[in-house]
Queue: 3 jobs
Job 1
Amino acid sequence: MLIVIPTRNRIRELTNTLNFLESNKFFFKKIVIVDSSNLEIKNQIKKKIRKYSANIKVVNSEASTCIQRNVGFNFIEKSKYIMFLDDDNIFYSDAFYKMQDFLNNNKDFVGVAFNQIYKERKNILDNFKKNCITHKIGIYSLDNGGFSDSGWQSRFVNFKNDKIVQWLPTRAVIYRCSEIKNSRFDKKLGVYGYLEDLDFSLQLKKRGKLIVCSNAKYTHDQSITRPGFHFGKKELRNRYYIVKKHKLNRNLFFLTTLLRMLLTFKEGILGNLNSFKRLAGNLVALFTINNLDENY
């Protein structure tokens, strides 16, 4: 097992992750940290890794979630599996043992994800997504880990059982090297490669099963605030790019976009002022979306 950890200026989170990996060395042979931090943090990371006995290599990279993950492919060598891991996950103590059991007993898959446990707080969007009408129209999938021809995916949290899914998040995921050696994350999705894991999943699911191991659990901070206007542009442009690239249903995409923007507006009316900035970014993206090919 090769573990690839993209990181940028988050030494505390990275240190916590490395401490966990150090106590679970049975699970992997090598760790590659793909670092795009500033010089001060880079030097701190180099000092930190000296205290670990695990086989750790640090590679410098430009800042890009897609490029940093792609760098990891250069170190596959003879590895059977490659694992992409965010630097700020918090794993259950037995998560790697549960995943090892899964790998020992399951051979027919391309990728398998750990199960993110998340205390869900229902909101307007959740109720909208789970409406049977939106499911029948094809806007959203009701399935956990599902995907719709509109270009929108459903959540990937709190699985009760192992399940074949339509997409895999890259926060904590393992791929079979023999199945993905010719695949790469799409750099056109930008420095903040929003939806790069969805695009990658759509490439891979044609080759075999994507699965979640429900017993291999972790948590991840979901409280990070989306960066308003710029995120509003990015989320719409990247999703439309994926719709075009994978020949999905453009009419459903635009219908879902309009409904989603109405919900964003309602969230703003209810007090989330950042939603208005996000909506403004959506509008700019929507009215310039015909120029997409010029910018990708």
Job 2
Amino acid sequence: MKLPEHKTVAERIAFLVANKKELIELKKAAIKFTDYVSMGESQPITKALNTNYQDDINSGIIKRTIIGNTYNWMDSHSDVHLDGTFTKSISERQDKIFHLHDHEQKITAKVGKPTKIYEKQVSWQDMGVNMPGNTMALMMDSNISKDMNAQVFGQYLSKEINQHSVGMIYVKIDLGVNDSMQKQEYATWQKHINQIANKERAMEQGYFWAVSEAKLIEISAVLAGSNELTPTIANETKELPDKKSTGIDYGKLGELMNSESKDEKSIVTSELVNKVSALRF
């Protein structure tokens, strides 16, 4: 949602407060997707969150845990998802939340079958954020399938996919502003500002949207998420060698596995699969 240009923070706050009801209704009226924002040089570190799934390429299914959203972090929409934002939705829609690519709302956009969606407490340090204490992350365990999308399957194998974003609908949202003259909005600001890990962003612009409940529709693999703390958690055991050390393009391997004729597959793809298996096991 693009706001009008304002010369000062005070003017911006005055506009937001005066139009708060309408702005909230506009936010609720649409599904929120990611912004394709540029990434900074530093990347989130999730060493303490590593998983130990074993990749079984022959089956065409690999297991991954991904972070769809990190709470108490102001994203590019100026939203701060508070602890428990998706708790109710997960309880009601556990089997209706999809793992997609690029927020495409199509049957053919599925890339995996979620086996578990949950909120988990994690430390800021584990997320690569230099801040004491903990936050909550929206997590999804997914069986990623080559039959659903061979190209995305290959990119998960080669660790090229490391950003995710949610498709969601706002349910409960409020405005927080850094202006003591605005009694209600300032109370929201004071209640939450010190739990926001990147609160300097909110301090600079003078406001944030506090999201306490939202309906979760899907979690997508994306180029860059509006919340950058949304990676695929590293697979700690028996990692695939990278392309440089093996000469194998895992994305191409996924395409071959999905598109070749049976005769070609037995000659070409099986040879590649055997090569990968020999390197890893």
Job 3
Amino acid sequence: MFVDAHCHPFDLKDYSPQAEEERRKLGVICASSAAVLEEFEYCERLSNQAKADNAAPLLPCFAVHPQMPLVMGAHNLLQESLSVLDTLAAQKRLCAVGETGFDLYNAAFKETEKTQDELFKVHLETALRYDLPLVIHSRRAMHKVFAFSSELKKCRAVVFHSWSGTEGEGEALLMRGVNAFFSFGAAIMLNHRGAMRCCASFPAERLLTETDAPFQPPRGREFSCYADIKAVLGAMEALRGSAAYSGGVYGGTEMEKIIETNFRAVFC
């Protein structure tokens, strides 16, 4: 099966109302991201219906996104979201805590760094308490991630959504005992040299594919969709020297099975 380790079904439906139908036809197993209760409940409905129909699984995840302190602002709203997180985890309705982490991309986000620190600690504690995988968003903040490496190595698994670190940073996380998985999407199709080098060199058993749909679209497109996962996997194969990717067409190889095995080891 194709694997989409990070997507946003609630947002995607506004771009593509038939997205869930497309996902099922393609047989894409995915982990969905939600940052507020309405989003999570939508993903959970899709998940339950997929189970009932014996369709490709959709696994619901939840976290207060590190950009939310800037977007939401009010402290009480953030606390309400953290309460939702704990309730969902306690009720065993979550497949992972995420995406959480740090975003220091610009001055506005940097102003919320202290709040991001506090939120991440709560998310990490929740993942450890309920033995859930942790999905991390990190932009210009790998130093923050490494500050928590001793705690992260206690996590069942840590998925780095849209990995933007270096080869050395990825290797260092593994050396420190973090059960890390590195997820790659459109960046490896858009000539992002750092992501391409990492995708080519990291151990196959540590790789995941994603679309981040509808965000991070391929060049020339308004949004990304589940069908893009074939191109992502094909680009991964090409970077790793497989002959299965030729002329922009993915032919299917052992890598597809490896990525599915990795996904199931993390989320299932």
